[in-house]
Design brief:
The structure holds two protein chains of two kinds. By secondary structure, chain A is of the alpha+beta class. Chain A is built from 19 helices and 23 strands. Chain B has a domain at 25-102. The chains are: A alpha+beta, B mainly alpha.
C-alpha cells in the first residue's frame, strides 16, 4: 500500500478525533463542566442601618477593608514587613483616645495610657507581629487574610509604606455613633463559622435576615490554572443592601435613663441594674438600659456574659410588685372590692407548714384591699389569693402574659414558663401572691403593668416601629392586643397604686405635684434551696401621669449593697427618671 | 437559442484551448462578453468597497465602544468614590452629633443641668 496514503489517512483520523473531542467539550459537556471553567466571586451586601425614633442612626456602616497578602509576590523580608504593620493592626482600643465625657476621661486623656495598658499594648503588638511574620513567610500560600475591618486611615498608612504583595478588599464594619448606648438592645455584628457577618443578640440578632441584605455575584471564566480570562464571559449581580430598622427608641430618654441608672448602680452598690420605659398605649419601647454594659464596636474585648440582655433573658422573683396583678384579678372577678376587709391580717399565718409574715413585722387588722397594697402586706395577699383560688389565679397570671414570651423583637427573649398547675401546693399559691416562688422576666412585668395603665388592654411590646428598604416600608405591629381586665378594674388598681406612692414607704422620694401610680418590690434571692435574707432584687414599677399615662417604667437592681429595699433604691431612681421625663415632655404638675 | 453557425469557427489562426474569438464572430457577442466582464468587475469592486466601508465602520464603532466602556468604568468608579465619601461624611456627622459628644462638649463649655424647669 502506498505509505503516503497511509500517512494521510493517519493524519486525517487524528484530526477527526481532535475535532470530535473539541466538539464534545465545547457543546456537549459545557453545562456539567461549567464549574471547571467558571469563577464566581461573592460581593458582600452592605448591612441595613438601625435608627432611633428621631432618625438618628444608632447603628450604621463605616468604610473598612480586608487586608490580604500574596506571599509569593512579597519582595521584602516578611519579618520587617510584620514589624512595620503590626502596630497598625492591633485592637482599636489602643488607638482611640479615652472618652472625655467626664473628668476621669479627661484626666486619662491628658496623662496618656497607664503602665498596665502600655504593657498590654506591647504584648499584643508582639503577638500580632509573630502571627503576621508566619503568614507572610509561607510561600505555599497564594493569598492569605491578614486583618479584617481595617479602617480607611489605617489603610492609608499601610499604603504609604508601599509594600508590594499587600492588597485591600472592601469589608465594611458597623459604626455605633452613640458608643455603648443601648448596647444590649442593639446587639452586635460578628462573624459566623464561615466568616460571614452575622447579627447576634438584640435587634441585630432578631432582624438579621432582613438587615444583612443579599450578596451579589461576579461571574467570569477561568483558565485551567484558575486565572480569570478577562475577555471571556462576564456576569454581575449587584448586591442588595439590607433593610433598615426604624425603632421607637427615644434617644434623649435613653440617654437620661442610662445616665441615671449608671449613677444609681454605683451609688447603691448593686451588682447590676435595668430600666425599661414603655408607652403603654402602643406597646412601644422608648428606652431600655442595663448597667454594666459593653461597647458593641469592641465586643470581643468584653466578657460575653454582658451580651445577653437581662431585660428579656433573665428571670427573677418579682416580689411585692406582683401583688398588683393578683389584686387586679380578684377585683376583676368581683371577688373583692377596694373596701373588702382582710380578716386574717392580725398577725403571721401558718400555711402548709410555713410561716407567712409581713416584710416589717407590722400587722394591720381589718385592712382594706387598698391598705394591703399600701402597706405591701404579704399576709393580706394570702387572703386575696385564697379567695381567688388556684384555677382563677393561674388563669389570670397567664392572661397577664406571664409564663410565655411577649414577642418583643429582641433575639434572646425567654419565656420563664410557669410550673404546671397540678404541681402547685397551697404554700405555692400563698407565696406567689406576693411574688415569691414565681419567676418572671422584666419585660413580662412591664407588659403586664402597661395593661393596667392602658385601661386593661394587654399589648405586646415592640422596639422596631418600621422596616424600610429601597422598595418598601413595613410597619411593625404588635403581635397581639387584647382586653384582659375591665377598664373599671384598671382604674381601681391605678388608684391603689397612687395611694401606695402617696402614703407608702417611698413617699419621701416622689416628685411633688404629680399623680404617680407605682409599687415597690423587694424579693429575696433563692440560693441553694433557701432564701438569702441579705440578697435581694429591689424593684419599682409604675406609670405617670396616673390619669393619662405617658409612660410605664420598671427599675430593678440586683443585690444593692446600701439597702436591700426597693423603696430605698429602685423607687428614688424611678422618681428621678420620672422627673426628667416630666421636664422633657413638658408635663405640668396636676396638683 | 442562437443558431450553431454563430459558434462556427471558420478560420483558426492560433492553437490552444483558450483562443481569442474568431474574427468571424459577431462583434455584438464580443461586446456583450466584454461588457459582462466589466459588470462583474464593477460588482466586485463595488462589493469590495462596501465591505471595506462596513469593516471601517465596525472598527470605528468598536473603538468608540471600547473608549465608551472605559468612560463608563471611570464614571462608575467616580460614583463609587462619591458614595463612599457620602457614607464617610454621614458617619462623621453621626459621630459629631451624638449625644455623647454633645454632652461632653456641653460640660467643657460649662453647661449644667437646670435645677428648675418651668413647664406650661
Amino acid at each position: 500500500m502506498n505509505r503516503l496514503v497511509v500517512f494521510k489517512f493517519f493524519v486525517f483520523a487524528v484530526a477527526i478525533a481532535v475535532l470530535a473531542r473539541l466538539f464534545y467539550w465545547q457543546f456537549l459537556s459545557s453545562f456539567s463542566a461549567r464549574a471547571s471553567y467558571s469563577l464566581e466571586n461573592e460581593i458582600p451586601a452592605p448591612h441595613g442601618e438601625i435608627f432611633a425614633s428621631d432618625g438618628f442612626p444608632l447603628v450604621t456602616n463605616q468604610e473598612a477593608f480586608l487586608l490580604y497578602a500574596k506571599p509569593r509576590e512579597i519582595t521584602r523580608d516578611p519579618n520587617v514587613i510584620a514589624q512595620i504593620i503590626s502596630e497598625l493592626l492591633i485592637s482599636e482600643k489602643y488607638a482611640r483616645p479615652p472618652s472625655t465625657a467626664d473628668a476621669v476621661g479627661q484626666a486619662t486623656a491628658a496623662a496618656g495610657p497607664s503602665k498596665v495598658e502600655q504593657e498590654q499594648k506591647d504584648d499584643e503588638i508582639k503577638k500580632k507581629q509573630a502571627d503576621l511574620a508566619t503568614k507572610l513567610s509561607d510561600k505555599a500560600l497564594s493569598w492569605v487574610q491578614l486583618a479584617r475591618k481595617v479602617t480607611k486611615d489605617i489603610k492609608e498608612k499601610l499604603e504609604a509604606e508601599k509594600i508590594i504583595g499587600l492588597g485591600f478588599e472592601r469589608d465594611d464594619k458597623r459604626l455605633y455613633p452613640e458608643a455603648s448606648m443601648a448596647a444590649n438592645l442593639l446587639g452586635f455584628v460578628g462573624s459566623d463559622k464561615y466568616g460571614k457577618d452575622t447579627g447576634y443578640f438584640g435587634l441585630e440578632g432578631y432582624w438579621d435576615k432582613q438587615i444583612r441584605g443579599k450578596p451579589g455575584r461576579v461571574g467570569s471564566e477561568k483558565d485551567p490554572f484558575g486565572f480569570p480570562i478577562l475577555i471571556g464571559k462576564y456576569s454581575e449581580v449587584k448586591p442588595l443592601q439590607g433593610s433598615s430598622i426604624h425603632t421607637n427608641i427615644d434617644r434623649s430618654i435613653q440617654f437620661i435613663v442610662e445616665d441615671k441608672l449608671k449613677n444609681a448602680v454605683e451609688k447603691y452598690g448593686a451588682k447590676d441594674g435595668s430600666v425599661i420605659v414603655q408607652d403603654p398605649k402602643t406597646g412601644h419601647i422608648l428606652a431600655m438600659a442595663t448597667f454594666p454594659s459593653y461597647n458593641p464596636a469592641f465586643f470581643q474585648e468584653f466578657d460575653d456574659k454582658l451580651f445577653k440582655n437581662p431585660v428579656v433573658a433573665d428571670t427573677y422573683e418579682p416580689g411585692s410588685t406582683f401583688k398588683l396583678f393578683v389584686m387586679a384579678a380578684a377585683l376583676d372577678l368581683s371577688i373583692v372590692s377596694p373596701q373588702t376587709r382582710c380578716d386574717v391580717c392580725l398577725g403571721p399565718r401558718q400555711i402548709g407548714g410555713f410561716e407567712i409574715s409581713t416584710w416589717n413585722k407590722k400587722y394591720y387588722p381589718e385592712s382594706t384591699m387598698a391598705e394591703i397594697i399600701q402597706h405591701s402586706d404579704n399576709v393580706g395577699m394570702t387572703f386575696v389569693s385564697e379567695k381567688l383560688g388556684l384555677d382563677k389565679f393561674y388563669n389570670y397570671i397567664q392572661k397577664f402574659g406571664f409564663g410565655q414570651k411577649t414577642g418583643i423583637d429582641l433575639q434572646e427573649e425567654v419565656a420563664a414558663p410557669l410550673r404546671d398547675k397540678d404541681d402547685w401546693r397551697k404554700i405555692d399559691l400563698a407565696t406567689a401572691s406576693f411574688g415569691q416562688g414565681i419567676a418572671v422576666t422584666p419585660i413580662q412585668m412591664i407588659q403586664a403593668l402597661s395593661a393596667i395603665a392602658a385601661g386593661g388592654k394587654l399589648i405586646s411590646p415592640k422596639v422596631a416601629a418600621k422596616i424600610t428598604d429601597a422598595s418598601r416600608q413595613e410597619i411593625v405591629k404588635p403581635d397581639f392586643e387584647r382586653q384582659i381586665i375591665s377598664p373599671k378594674t384598671a382604674a381601681l388598681i391605678t388608684e391603689m397604686m397612687v395611694n401606695a406612692v402617696d402614703h407608702g414607704e417611698a413617699q419621701a422620694f416622689k416628685p411633688k405635684g404629680y399623680r404617680i401610680a407605682g409599687k415597690t418590690g423587694t424579693a429575696q434571692i433563692p440560693v441553694a434551696g433557701h432564701y438569702d435574707p441579705d440578697k435581694t432584687i429591689a424593684s419599682f414599677i409604675g406609670f405617670a401621669p396616673a390619669d393619662n399615662p405617658r409612660f410605664t417604667m420598671l427599675v430593678r437592681f440586683t443585690e444593692p449593697a446600701s439597702s436591700p429595699f426597693g423603696s430605698e433604691t429602685a423607687a428614688p431612681t424611678f422618681f428621678a427618671i420620672a422627673q426628667e421625663l416630666f421636664n422633657y415632655w413638658g408635663i405640668p404638675q396636676s396638683r | 437559442m442562437l443558431p450553431v453557425s454563430v459558434f462556427a469557427v471558420k478560420h483558426r489562426n492560433y492553437s490552444g484551448p483558450f483562443q481569442a474569438p474568431a474574427a468571424g464572430l459577431s462583434s455584438n457577442w464580443l461586446k456583450s462578453w466584454q461588457s459582462i466582464g466589466k459588470v462583474k468587475l464593477k460588482i466586485l469592486v463595488t462589493f469590495s468597497l462596501l465591505l471595506c466601508a462596513l469593516l471601517i465602520t465596525q472598527l470605528v464603532f468598536a473603538a468608540n465602544l471600547s473608549t465608551d466602556g472605559q468612560k463608563l468604568a471611570i464614571v462608575e468608579s467616580e460614583i463609587t468614590k462619591a458614595q463612599s465619601e457620602k457614607a464617610n461624611l454621614k458617619a462623621e456627622i453621626a459621630r459629631q452629633s451624638s449625644l455623647l459628644t454633645l454632652s461632653a462638649k456641653a460640660k467643657e463649655l460649662g453647661f449644667t443641668s437646670s435645677p428648675k424647669i418651668i413647664a406650661p
